[in-house]
Specification:
Elements lengths: L1 H33 L3 H4 L9 H7 L3 E5 L5 E4 L1 H5 L3 E2 L2 E2 L2 H13 L3 E8 L8 E11 L3 E8 L1 H37 L4 H33 L7 E4 H11 L1 H6 L3 E4 L23 E4 L1 H17 L6 E11 L2 E9 L7 H4 L11 H7 L5 H11 L3 E7 L3 E9 L2 H9 L1 H6 L5 H7 L21
Parallel strand pairs: 9-11
Antiparallel strand pairs: 1-2, 1-7, 3-4, 5-6, 6-7, 8-10, 11-12, 12-14, 13-14
Length: 447
């Protein structure tokens, strides 16, 4: 009995001690939770009222530092640029600016070139950093990304330099030729020869000025202000007619799978045996005609004699609605992989000597690119050296025409043509990235 009482007494004492210990542990835990920490001292409540809201709407990257150089607030853009890492400002020049501003209260601004994160190349990120005091203990750092602005400025500077050079060449040639004409005034044959050269240079100068005007227009104007449904077959017929003389001189056969209005054979290729009827795109007719005309003209100029240039069109499904693809295929010299990345740059020529011989200005493909982009489309190229090239212009289809095509399938069948969707589905590329179509005659060298 005494043993049982002793055991019960010990158990009671142990229970009381356990309860006391648990109570003390709970009180200690509550006190630790209420004690301010270093993190809680440097969170949003230390920012002046309204500052957090203002920083969240700024386009610039924003970083707020406390008196210990710890980051109190940083925008997501600051993290994206790599300015903040591990709760610290990672750019030493900016950190030194913040310390100097905290010391004397003066606002400082500087432009820096920072290494770009995540790239193995030596590309630099151009930024403008501005530091100002924020209250009595904080410093505000605002960083603006100037990389794109600098790239645009470099493009503009190169463009002016290239324009000056391109204009200087024909103007200088005209000056020299005029002197030669004066010196050979008593030699009719020499005068005639020099006058012919002057006419060639004058034509080149006129073409250059006109393409500069066209490029300026497509960059500054909104083509959709005067947009309308434009028939693809009319654009193709106009492009072929524009290049008929050059193609005939080189005996180049131009063939198309696009139905065109009744008229003479195009480029000596005869009427087409197939095609896609009533395709229309939405946009500015003049700009679209100029873009497609440039592609066809390039194909003719860079093709050997007695070859074929093909033009094909089809409807394709794409995100955002139906699109029309117009492909221009040639059997020319082709384009190397390194040149394909730059052919749409202004004044860039794959073969400068050949371009000057054909009268090229180096602006045609730049105009095509701008027209495609301003119409909500794109232009792409497939090419292999010594095998030819295929340039594909993809543009949004005019929606009203597409609706009418769905409503009147019977009329298309009675007209003797294949259904629109059937024809588009039957068209297949002849190369991995090109859009030369099955209905287009196979490329061949004519005897």
């Amino acid at each position: 009995m005494d043993v049982n009482a002793a055991v019960a007494a010990v158990a009671a004492i142990a229970g009381v001690l356990t309860g006391v210990i648990a109570m003390l542990a709970f009180r200690w835990s509550e006190r630790e939770q209420k004690r301010p920490t270093r993190t809680s001292l440097h969170t949003d409540p230390v920012l002046p009222p309204g500052v957090d809201t203002v920083l969240s709407v700024l386009r610039s990257s924003a970083v707020v530092l406390d008196e210990a150089d710890a980051v109190v607030k940083a925008s997501s853009a600051a993290y994206a640029l790599g300015l903040v890492r591990g709760g610290k400002l990672a750019v030493e020049p900016m950190l030194q600016m913040a310390r100097d501003t905290r010391r004397d209260g003066e606002i400082r601004q500087v432009e820096l070139d920072l290494p770009r994160r995540g790239t193995g190349r030596g590309e630099a990120l151009a930024v403008s950093a501005r530091v100002a005091p924020l209250g009595s203990r904080l410093v505000l750092l605002l960083v603006e990304d100037l990389t794109e602005a600098r790239r645009i400025e470099a493009v503009r500077r190169d463009f002016v330099a290239n324009v000056s050079h391109e204009l200087k060449t024909p103007v200088g040639a005209l000056s020299l030729l005029s002197e030669a004409v004066m010196d050979a005034s008593d030699d009719p044959e020499a005068v005639e020869r020099f006058a012919g050269r002057m006419q060639i240079e004058a034509t080149r100068l006129t073409s250059l000025v006109q393409e500069l005007i066209d490029l300026s227009r497509v960059q500054n104007d909104d083509p959709l202000e005067d947009a309308e449904p434009v028939r693809v077959d009319e654009l193709v017929a106009e492009a072929i007619d524009r290049c008929r003389h050059q193609a005939g001189t080189k005996q180049i056969n131009m063939a198309s799978n696009v139905w065109a209005p009744e008229g003479p054979d195009q480029g000596g290729g005869g009427r087409r045996a197939g095609g896609t009827a009533d395709l229309r795109v939405w946009g500015n007719r003049g700009q679209l005609a100029a873009a497609l005309g440039n592609l066809v003209e390039n194909a003719v100029n860079y093709s050997p004699a007695r070859t074929r240039v093909g033009i094909a069109a089809r409807r394709v499904n794409a995100s955002g609605g139906e699109h029309i693809e117009i492909a221009v295929t040639d059997q020319g010299i082709g384009i190397s992989d390194k040149d394909k990345e730059r052919i749409f740059e202004r004044f860039y020529r794959v073969d400068p000597a050949r371009s000057r011989a054909t009268g090229g200005t180096g602006l045609g493909l730049a105009i095509v690119k701008h027209v495609a982009a301003s119409h909500g489309g794109e232009v792409s190229v497939w090419s292999a050296e010594n095998q030819g090239s295929t340039f594909t212009l993809r543009l949004p289809e005019a929606g009203a025409v597409r609706d009418r095509a769905h409503q009147q399938p019977a009329r298309d069948e009675r007209a003797g043509g294949a259904g629109l969707d059937e024809e588009a589905g039957r068209s297949t590329p002849t190369s991995p990235d090109s859009t030369a179509y099955e209905t287009l005659p196979a490329p061949e060298v004519l005897p």
